[in-house]
Amino acid sequence: MLESIDMSLVDWSRGQFALTAMFHWIFVPLTLGLSFMVAFMHTIYVRTGDEEWKRITKFWMKLFGINFAIGVATGIILEFEFGTNWSNYSWFVGDIFGAPLAIEGILAFFMESTFIAVMFFGWNKVSKRFHLAASWLTAFGANLSAVWILVANAWMQHPVGTLFNPDTARNEMTSFWDVIFSEVAVNKFLHTITSSFLLASVFVIGISAWFLLRKHEVLFAKRSTIVASVFGVIAAIATIATGDTSARIVAREQPMKFAAMEALYEGQTHAPLVAIGAMRTDTTMLPNPRQEFIFKIEIPNALSYMVFLTPSGFIPGISDLVYGNEEQGLMAYEERIERGAIAIQTLKELKKAKDRGDEAAYSALRTKFSDPEWLEEYFAHFGFGYYQGRELKELIPNVKLSFYTFHIMVILGVHFLILSVLVLWLSMKNRWGNHKWLLWVALITIPMPWIASQAGWVLAELGRQPWVVYEMMPTISAVTRLKPGAVQLTFWIFLLTFTVLFIAEIKIMISQIKKGPGGK
């Protein structure tokens, strides 16, 4: 049905959005986590009156401010891209997707933008309590912004609280509460927020380790480390717990993504979990190639147990989902494509009947869209209808990338937990800083949470492919029909601009870190 679409347009549009989103996400998690840590340090200063805590608060607040400014600028670009590059998508889901984004702009962004000015410029100009309140409200505002963005993304992963209107060919919201309190939305928010706190904790521990290695600002570094390590331990445990829940939700709601995460082609009970492995690049040029392992180390039964809390649980593989598994009640993609094509054709005929004023035909067709049985039998497969005449492999996400991003995220998450616990334990014994090699480990670890965080988003978004709205709207139908050359040009302009911004951010941050807290 979309045979004529230029796939290079789809690829470049996806590349441009991914570039913008990934660059934006460099700044967001540090903002989310550091904002609460700064508010906590500020609270200690107000309660104790200790001037050292004031220096500590002002130093980390300065780094927060630099990061916040560039993060806001890059986030605005993303919202414009929905209209320029993804106009079909914006039309199809604007009624649902627009509400969370509008609330984010009106409420949360307004809140953080208002109080951040008081937070930065309120020292000795407003009362201590009001100043402290501004720090907390800035932190809550920043995290409230994330709520609405994550709700919108969660709906794309798991569309609920919505009804398709065949007269407008749009999805319309039927329950705001179902959208914001869906299991996917709640878990996505918790996992993203706690992982952002963990990222900020590792950042503060790492920078503080640099000061300790230089034996400079030792009291500042040790106090910063205690706060960060407490945040780090709590955030690491919460991140792992919410990640575990997230895996179970993915297994249930997006079984193809889950199978790709483990490169599982044949479904099975007592499925093992691949703890570590390496995959070879397929060079067979077969129509439906498999990504095979060079080696792998497995934990017996662990995958089935992780999902069903029993080793006898059946985990469907990629082949079961593509070709069907009657025993497990899985319909083959070919069948789903045929049924989806019937739903799309019915929608086209409805529009034609309406245009020519054929009331009888229109009423007969319109009735189908309110018939629960027809909706379940045909409309539930609507998105698959776009793949009639196309290759089945287009319905399989990139297996190798899904596998690596998932395992990188998990392995690094365990490393952060061990590091945070070790740093907190040594800090409580007043021995943090005695082992130079540990300080170097903390310093080298600084970029790793960003790698884990980006890997998580790559898995969430690429693992969902080919859907922009899961099993409802494929990416190929969501893109704006632009000339590929125009998208390529803006892609390279954005890449150049982001590179310059990134270099500027790093230079400013390093410069401020080298200056230290000052103010003695």
What does this structure look like?
The protein is mostly helical and 520 residues long. 70% of the residues lie in helices and 5% in strands. The chain is built from 18 helices and six strands. Helix 2 runs antiparallel to helix 18. It is globular and about 80 Å long. It starts with 6 loop residues before the first helix and ends in a 5-residue tail after the last helix. 40% of the residues are buried.
In short:
The protein is mainly alpha-helical and 520 residues long. Helix content is 70%, strand content 5%. The chain has 18 helices and six strands.
Keywords:
single chain, 520 residues, mainly alpha, two-stranded antiparallel sheet, 6 strands, 5% strand, globular
Mean pLDDT: 89
Trace the largest sheet across and list its strands: 1-2
Number of strands: 6
Number of helices: 18
Shape type:
globular
Strand content: 5-15%
Q: Enumerate the spans where pLDDT stays under 50 for 5 or more consecutive residues.
A: none
Layout of helices and strands:
Layout: H1 7-48, H2 51-84, H3 87-121, H4 128-157, E1 162-165, E2 170-173, H5 176-180, H6 183-213, H7 218-253, H8 255-261, E3 273-279, E4 293-299, H9 302-308, H10 318-323, H11 333-355, H12 359-368, H13 372-377, H14 399-428, H15 436-445, H16 448-462, E5 467-469, E6 473-474, H17 475-478, H18 484-515
Antiparallel strand pairs: 1-2, 3-4, 5-6
Helix pairs in contact: 1-2, 1-4, 1-6, 1-16, 1-18, 2-3, 2-7, 2-18, 3-4, 4-6, 6-7, 6-15, 6-16, 7-8, 7-14, 8-14, 11-12, 14-16
